[in-house]
Amino acid sequence: MQIQAAILNAPNGRFQIDTVELDPPAEGEVLVKLAASGVCRSDWRVAIGTAPKPMPMIAGHEGAGIVEAIGPGVAGLTPGDHVAFIWAPACGDCYYCNGGKPNLCATFTQLLATGLQADGKSRIRWRGEPVHILAGLGAFAEYAVVRAESCLPIRRDIPLELAAVTGCAVATGVGAAMNTAAVKPGASVAVFGVGGVGLNIIQGARLCGAHPIIAVDADEAKLTLAGEFGATHSLPSDGAAISRIQALSGGRGADYVFEAAGLPALQEVAFRALRPGGQLTLVGTAPDDSVTALPAAKITRSELCIRGSFYGSCHPRRDIPRLLNLYAAGKLKLRELITRTYRLEQINEAYADLVQGKLARGVIVF
Ligand SMILES: [Zn+2]
Ligand SMILES: [Zn+2]
């Protein structure tokens, strides 16, 4: 079938909207009609080449939609099901899945890196050439053929644009607070960078019962939004931020510090906000070839813990339905995350807005 898609053909930050030819789903695959795709910075890193991927490529990994057709051998999904995409599919039976870490599942790592399907082929052609897909998905298109492991059936009363952002930004941010750091009630938390992921770290910390929850960002509008998501204090990211965090946390520094922007310079600043024995969680993904400089002697002497959080250390099939239930119960904010929606043809405008810091989350709606 012929569909419209946003194609990356070179790492120049430009998406090309064009018609591509999509094959039907093969063994173990599912055809999904996209309803919404989040405008996430991970796609932008591919678009500008700081996370190099094979091209031409269709990016987009924060998607939700409706199952249109299933290939042979697919169980547990039927046409008409509402699904959220999981961008780190899990096999359920590797070393990591058996160890309770499905977000690190090793089975599909190589396959996803190729941008192709299990048979080494693409289901998409553009100008006669095979097109790669990001994270086994390619959600910046009207339809996607994906592995069944990448599709999570969800309750039907959740608007699909909210399900889309829950599958990435919300699971990543809330999960970083709840799963990776496992923030304790009454603990002090500081979050550096309060875009789509940072706001969700804040609401995750709120759900964990943290206090104070301190948001740090250069953007005043984002700091205001952070207050709505549960930040008790908002600080501009200037030279005084560290001493103010210390003053708000008994003169010590925060128990838990999060960096959500993926900027080595900001990670180095965030490190200084820790109390002795505190934990810094790196949630934002830095450029592939970047290096963060941290003082090793202080890490040793102060017993500091520095850890990464990938996909919020979440079990997507357990946690995404839980998050949607929390939303339905009025305990989790999703609608307020979406600053603006765009049509697929406006994707370049959407990324310009993201880069200029205008968005908590933008969403492409189909
Ligand atoms: Zn994302
Ligand atoms: Zn696995």
Question: What does this protein look like?
Answer:
The protein is built from 11 helices and 19 strands. With about 375 residues, it is of the alpha/beta class. The chain has 2 domains: about 1-165 and about 315-365, Quinone Oxidoreductase, Chain A, domain 1; about 180-310, NAD(P)-binding Rossmann-like Domain (Rossmann fold, 3-Layer(aba) Sandwich), CATH 3.40.50. Strands 3, 5, 6, 10, 11, 18 and 19 form a 7-stranded mixed sheet that branches. The longest helix is centred in the middle third of the chain and has 21 residues, at about 160-180. The chain is globular and about 60 Å long. The structure holds zinc ion (ZN) (2 copies). One zinc ion binds near residues 40, 42, 61, 62 and 168.
Main traits of this protein?
single chain; globular; alpha/beta; 366 residues; Quinone Oxidoreductase, Chain A, domain 1; seven-stranded mixed β-sheet; binds zinc ion; six-stranded parallel β-sheet; 19 strands; Rossmann fold; 11 helices
